[in-house]
Design brief:
single chain; alpha+beta; Rossmann fold; two-stranded antiparallel ribbon; 4 helices; 4 strands; 34% helix
């Protein structure tokens, strides 16, 4: 919270991100403030929350300890409406799970 400017600390999205890890789920999407996205990513990578609901905005990030990827839909919203995900987009998002040599086996 200290990294956020004081006016941002009371925003609903910030308050949700602060309390959500205790509930086990956080969200990462394009409408979050960049600093809030970073807080979500940090909480997830550090293991403070086991579940991350994310759009493809998370898929372009760095390594995260994802074991399973679930697609809610194979389309994404664009200016002209919904468009099907490209094969590259699906590969990018699904590639978050089970990277050889970087993901520990489940116990």
């Amino acid at each position: 919270m200290r990294v956020l400017p004081p006016p941002h600390r009371a925003l609903p999205q910030v308050l949700t991100v602060v309390t959500a890890p205790r509930q086990g789920v956080v969200a990462h999407h394009v409408l979050l403030l960049p600093t809030v996205k970073e807080l979500v990513e940090t909480a997830f990578v550090a293991g403070h929350t086991p579940t991350l609901f994310a759009t493809d905005t998370f898929a372009v990030g760095g390594h995260a300890p994802v074991r399973t990827v679930v697609f809610g839909a194979l389309a994404k919203f664009s200016r002209g409406g919904y468009l099907p995900l490209s094969r590259r987009g699906v590969d990018q998002m699904a590639g978050r799970a089970g990277r050889r040599g970087t993901t520990r086996p489940a116990t």
